[in-house]
């Protein structure tokens, strides 16, 4: 018997490409979870990966950058915080 | 000498009347008094014969002020005339012929007006003198003689009437005689004699004629009524003869011993006949017997009964003699009937009987013209006898449940309206109603054998119960409320085996039912509903939602619904996307957006994946190395979907490369993301040629496909051992066994197992089934993927329980964070309020979570008698 694949309906799931159990440096919540103000993880509460190598919840780091004292620096390594464009 | 002044009109009038009536004889001395009586009694006019010459009542004014009348000026004349009317009127012109021809000259009356000059009469005309002469001679017959003679003929007439003979004297003569006697002021005497005469007749002859009647023993009512009718007839005659007596004397007599002839007659009848002990008892009993017979639906003479009632009524005995007896008798009858009927019949029969009796009795009251007050009392008696006294039987739970079970709407309607007469029906019916709902509901829920039909049966039950409320119970609010409450109670009842959670079976089954509906599997579920398929589906969903509202464990529903939805979306099994959407909207309005957020993002993932795959197909990596496979990829955001275990499986190299290229394209587009394949959820279509002529398309799960693809590499008819397959696919035992089972032991056997039996053993060998046949070109073998395994179900329950704990903790923390300090009871209450949309929590469960949070230092107890909690920041 010969069988040939005709159609393939694949299913995949995605998660953030960060080590598992890693937490956001600001809110200390897992990246797979949400920032404290969100209820649903995933696209609703995305991550922001900094060029310095530190990632945060978008909402968390946004709040931080907007404070005066941050001076636009990464809260972890005090380098200028720039994120990797998608 | 009597002097009268008349104006011309009155005089001529008097003359005219005189011509009309010619009394045969009038003894002297009658006329004057009777006229006076007449006017004392305000009789309209007079045509009395000659007044007595020496009448003591003279119009004094005329004598005192004759000059007024002499002048005949209009105002004065009027005045005088009025005075005369006030005192007396004397007709001076009439004079009967015959015996009065020899007129007594002294009877001549002349109204003389001596011309006396008035002090001041500006309009006075020529003075005139008016002489009036009485030309008639008064009768000389002695009044007593006249009286006795007339009475003689009257009495004879009366006896003739009593004996139903012809009256010898002419009626007019009799009438006139009465009239004359009355005018002679002997009406009282006449009345007394009349009364005596009638009284002796009624009390003696009539009475004994009744009792001598043939049917007296059996049918007293008939005898009395016929006597009554006869007496009424006779009385009519007597009344006509004595009409003058009636009108002139009796009617206006305030003395109560002088009643008009008719009432006198009635009174005599009443006293002598009806109230006579021997007749009254028999008569009344007779009426009661007639009623009794009528109630037993035996034939009776209805008109006789009607006349008897009318007679009793006109004799004024209705309220005094008839009604009390009737009511007593009815009460006895109906309490006996109630006792008998209630104990010997089934409830349905008894209800029917009661309604009929009520109806019939009302009709009876109308037919026999009973008084409205009697009708009212009868209503009360019936209610008491048939309903109130039998209340324990009427509201017997067992019987009512039986009616409900039989869906006996007629009896239930009757029951409701009957109970409505004696009080608040819901208060009587509610216990049985609730008990019935609970019993039926429980039996459905606990019927494990028919678990799959549970929702269907619940829906039917709900529909039936709603009909009960709507039709027989007339939309009774309390009962409708009881229905909702009881429904909720049994749906959320705790079961023994899962005591820490409320019974989640209904929630699970409802979710499954919705799944079947949305897959289009149960389009015939709601047969009889009009409209196209979409409308039917919408209707069915609406019904299910009705059940869903009762469910307290909404989180269980959500978990199962989510799992089923995921399966529908992944396998593309949804019958209608619109229906899915509308269901989602309904859930959203029912439970809030938090409830459906995950479900919505599942839909969103599907949409995004569609875009992604079309994007992929335009890229170079796709066009470059496409292995001629129609690829479709669904990318899920992990958090929104149910969790699936990762299944290690070896994918054919070409396919794996192809998938890898997709992965690269995807990750290029979405940086920072990692894709993981969920092969257990994937499915594919394989073209298989069993023999050169037999080509089929097989719809398979990827796991099944991987197994089948292994047979590509071996010759036809060669067996692969279990171990070989395991190595080739890299599947774990559990999954492999399941997969092989679905291929070799299920409905469509693509593979052949060499040993018989349903179970797959590690020693088994498999080969392709050369004799595979199927009428369809495209064969779906991936049913196994759609099925839920027992482990999955357990896992879902576990997750729900876990989620519930987290939900509870989150709710408690939210509350504590906003309140800082809170009393124990308030906290419990607020937690329940916050989480009730997702599922109702138990107090012990909340307490447990509070303990845990205290352990984790999220909050602490404050010292004191009352339990206070404080949030720890």
TrEMBL record, chain A:
Note whether Transmembrane occurs among the keywords. Answer: no
Q: For this chain's UniProt record, which GO biological process terms are given?
A: anaphase-promoting complex-dependent catabolic process; cell division
What one GO molecular function would you report for this record?
Answer: cullin family protein binding
Principal localization reads: nucleus
> What does UniProt give as GO cellular component?
anaphase-promoting complex
Q: Which residues form the RING-type domain?
A: 35-78
This protein's record includes keyword Coiled coil: no
Q: Which Gene3D superfamilies does this UniProt record tie to the protein?
A: Zinc/RING finger domain, C3HC4 (zinc finger) (3.30.40.10)
Question: Which of UniProt's keywords are assigned here?
Answer: Cell cycle, Cell division, Metal-binding, Mitosis, Nucleus, Ubl conjugation pathway, Zinc, Zinc-finger
Q: In which pathway does it act?
A: Protein modification; protein ubiquitination
Q: Where in the cell is it found?
A: Nucleus
Give the family this protein belongs to, as stated in its UniProt record: Belongs to the RING-box family.
This chain's protein is named Anaphase-promoting complex subunit 11
Q: Which organism is it from?
A: Tuber borchii
UniProtKB/TrEMBL annotation, chain B:
- Does Ubl conjugation show up as a keyword for this record? yes
> Where do the Cullin family profile domain residues begin and end?
505-744
> Composition bias, kind Polar residues: at what positions?
20-35
Keyword annotations? Isopeptide bond, Ubl conjugation
Gene Ontology biological process terms, A to Z: ubiquitin-dependent protein catabolic process
List GO terms (cellular component aspect). cullin-RING ubiquitin ligase complex
The entry assigns this protein to a family as follows: Belongs to the cullin family.
Q: What is this protein's name?
A: Cullin-domain-containing protein
């Amino acid at each position: 018997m010969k069988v040939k694949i005709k159609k393939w309906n694949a299913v995949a799931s995605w998660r953030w490409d960060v080590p598992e159990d890693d937490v956001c440096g600001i809110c200390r919540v897992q990246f797979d979870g949400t920032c404290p103000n969100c209820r649903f993880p995933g696209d609703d509460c995305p991550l922001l990966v900094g060029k310095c190598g530190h990632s945060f919840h978008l909402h968390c780091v946004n709040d931080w950058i907007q404070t005066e004292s941050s001076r636009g620096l990464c809260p972890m390594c005090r380098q200028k915080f720039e994120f990797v464009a998608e | 000498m009597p002097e009268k002044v008349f104006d011309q009109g009155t005089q001529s009038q008097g003359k005219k009347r005189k011509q009309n009536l010619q009394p045969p004889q009038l003894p002297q001395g009658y006329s004057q008094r009777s006229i006076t009586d007449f006017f004392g009694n305000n009789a309209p006019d007079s045509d009395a014969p000659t007044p007595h010459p020496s009448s003591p009542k003279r119009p004094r004014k005329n004598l005192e002020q004759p000059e007024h009348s002499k002048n005949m000026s209009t105002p004065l004349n009027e005045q005088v005339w009025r005075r005369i009317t006030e005192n007396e009127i004397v007709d001076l012109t009439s004079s009967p012929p015959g015996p009065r021809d020899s007129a007594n000259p002294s009877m001549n009356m002349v109204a003389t007006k001596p011309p006396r000059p008035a002090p001041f009469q500006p309009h006075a005309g020529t003075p005139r003198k008016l002489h009036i002469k009485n030309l008639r001679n008064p009768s000389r017959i002695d009044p007593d003689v006249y009286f006795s003679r007339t009475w003689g003929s009257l009495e004879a007439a009366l006896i003739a009437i009593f004996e139903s003979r012809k009256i010898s004297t002419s009626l007019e003569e009799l009438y006139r005689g009465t009239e004359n006697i009355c005018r002679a002021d002997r009406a009282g005497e006449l009345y007394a004699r009349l009364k005596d005469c009638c009284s002796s007749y009624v009390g003696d002859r009539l009475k004994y004629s009744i009792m001598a009647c043939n049917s007296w023993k059996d049918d007293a009512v008939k005898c009395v009524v016929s006597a009554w009718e006869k007496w009424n007839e006779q009385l009519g005659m007597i009344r006509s003869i004595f009409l003058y007596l009636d009108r002139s004397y009796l009617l206006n007599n305030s003395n109560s011993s002088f009643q008009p002839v008719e009432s006198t007659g009635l009174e005599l009848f009443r006293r002598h006949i009806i109230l006579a002990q021997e007749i009254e008892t028999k008569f009344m009993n007779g009426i009661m017997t007639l009623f009794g017979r009528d109630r037993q639906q035996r034939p009776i003479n209805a008109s006789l009964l009607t006349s008897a009632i009318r007679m009793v009524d006109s004799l004024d005995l209705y309220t005094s003699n008839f009604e009390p007896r009737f009511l007593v008798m009815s009460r006895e009858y109906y309490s006996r009937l109630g006792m008998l009927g209630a104990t010997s019949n089934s409830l349905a029969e008894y209800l029917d009987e009661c309604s009929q009796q009520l109806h019939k009795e009302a009709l009876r009251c109308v037919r026999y013209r009973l008084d409205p007050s009697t009708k009212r009392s009868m209503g009360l008696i019936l209610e008491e006898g048939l309903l109130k006294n039998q209340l324990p039987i009427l509201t017997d739970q067992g019987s009512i449940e039986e009616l409900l079970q039989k869906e006996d709407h007629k009896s239930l309607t009757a029951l409701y309206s009957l109970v409505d007469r004696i009080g608040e029906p819901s208060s009587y019916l509610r216990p049985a109603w609730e008990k019935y709902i609970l019993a039926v509901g429980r039996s459905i829920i606990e019927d494990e054998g028919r678990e799959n039909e549970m929702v269907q049966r619940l829906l039917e039950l709900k529909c039936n119960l709603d009909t009960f409320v709507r039709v027989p119970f007339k939309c009774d609010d309390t009962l409708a409320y009881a229905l909702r409450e009881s429904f909720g109670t049994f749906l959320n009842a705790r079961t023994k085996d899962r005591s820490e959670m409320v019974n989640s079976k209904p929630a699970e089954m409802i979710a499954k039912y919705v799944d079947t509906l949305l897959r289009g599997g149960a389009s015939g579920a709601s047969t009889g509903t009009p409209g196209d398929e979409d409308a039917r589906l919408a209707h069915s969903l609406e019904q299910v939602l009705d059940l869903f509202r009762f469910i307290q464990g909404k989180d269980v529903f959500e978990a199962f619904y989510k799992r089923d939805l995921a399966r529908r979306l992944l396998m593309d099994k949804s019958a209608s996307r619109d229906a899915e959407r509308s269901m989602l909207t309904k859930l959203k309005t029912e439970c809030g957006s938090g409830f459906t957020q995950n479900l919505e993002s599942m839909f969103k993932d599907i949409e995004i994946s569609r875009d992604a795959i079309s994007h992929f197909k335009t890229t170079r990596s796709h066009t470059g190395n496409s292995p001629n496979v129609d690829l479709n990829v669904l990318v899920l955001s992990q958090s929104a979907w149910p969790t699936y275990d990762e299944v290690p499986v070896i994918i054919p190299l070409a396919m794996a490369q192809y998938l890898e290229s997709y992965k690269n394209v995807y990750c290029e587009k979405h940086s920072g993301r990692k894709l993981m394949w969920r092969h257990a959820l994937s499915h594919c279509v394989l073209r298989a040629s069993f023999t050169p002529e037999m080509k089929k398309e097989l719809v398979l799960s990827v796991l099944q496909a991987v197994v089948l693809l292994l047979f590509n590499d071996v010759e036809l008819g060669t067996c692969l051992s279990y171990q070989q397959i395991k190595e080739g696919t890299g599947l774990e035992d559990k999954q492999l066994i399941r997969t092989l089972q679905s291929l070799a032991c299920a409905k469509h056997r693509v593979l052949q197992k060499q040993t018989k039996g349903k179970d797959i053993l590690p020693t088994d060998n498999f080969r392709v089934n050369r004799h595979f046949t199927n009428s369809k070109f495209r064969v779906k073998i991936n049913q196994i993927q759609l099925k839920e395994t027992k482990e999955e179900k357990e896992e879902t329950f576990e997750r729900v329980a876990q989620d519930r704990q987290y939900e509870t903790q989150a709710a408690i923390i939210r509350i504590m964070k906003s309140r800082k300090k809170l009393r124990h009871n308030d906290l419990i209450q607020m937690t329940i309020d916050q989480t009730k949309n997702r599922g109702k929590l138990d107090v012990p469960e909340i307490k447990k979570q509070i303990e845990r949070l205290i352990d984790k230092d999220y909050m602490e107890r404050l010292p004191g008698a009352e339990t206070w909690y404080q949030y720890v920041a």
